[in-house]
């Protein structure tokens, strides 16, 4: 990883050089953007990378508020925060996870999963706190009707838009990290699945102006994922510690039910009762019957797929547990037969006659007459 002193050097811009120094390269690029803020000529371009774009002042009852909407310039901001995320990823790996994994003496497979869960615990915890703060301050929890009222929600507060940009940056950074972290080929399809699922759902909520509903669903999802990866970390530290997995299983099922309920309530009933149900993409309005059906189908399909995988893993886990228990019972119940000493004569039998080992018949001993 980056920031580590190494005795071995690699050719400049070779594959190994990029892998071992990708965080340092990202830090240099970020530093160039920050230096651009110091000069008037480049300050405007630097702000394009750092701050969310497309702001507009809107009058309110007290004073003017600044709102934001999305556009192509958001890609530049996301790119900048991808490099920020790569740097933070390297810091967590270098100064926290590597030190813990050295003490645990994990195998290669467990070491890879430990790093994955460690990174996701840090991300889910920070995102969970941040998302909860945004939801509470914006009043989405206290007023559930705000999830669908006044749709489309084209104009976003700063913290909502910035949250979505950072979320997209993190999950986009996870794609090159599969290469930088040298993830095993067997693990890549599994990780690609959940990375793509997050990107599709977050980008869909952002582009279809369902940001309020997306925040609540992300909050529920991150609670379950945080518990799962915490349970994995405790399991790697002590394989007998599986209590958190039971807590995660309960939370996982509850979050699936809440996710489906909220999606059906907000999209199936809330948006269906809105007066404006015309397809106007230039105004950000996608509230049509086909749109609602597609979104509900996507949400229900993803939740059903996650639930199927959960049930499959739980059944496999229980099967392994009962197999171990039955094997232990067989060992305890099986009687121990006493070992019998069998004295064998040297040689072998041929046609009922005992032969010596050299093939000769043994000589019969003559008995002395009394």
From TrEMBL:
Keyword Glycosyltransferase attached: no
An annotated GO BP: protein insertion into ER membrane
Pfam family, one: TRAM_LAG1_CLN8
Keyword Signal attached: no
Cross-referenced PROSITE patterns: TLC
InterPro entries (UniProt xref): TLC-dom, Translocation_assoc_membrane
Domain TLC: residue ranges: 112-321
GO CC aspect terms: endoplasmic reticulum membrane
Protein name: Translocating chain-associated membrane protein
Organism of provenance: Phascolarctos cinereus (Koala)
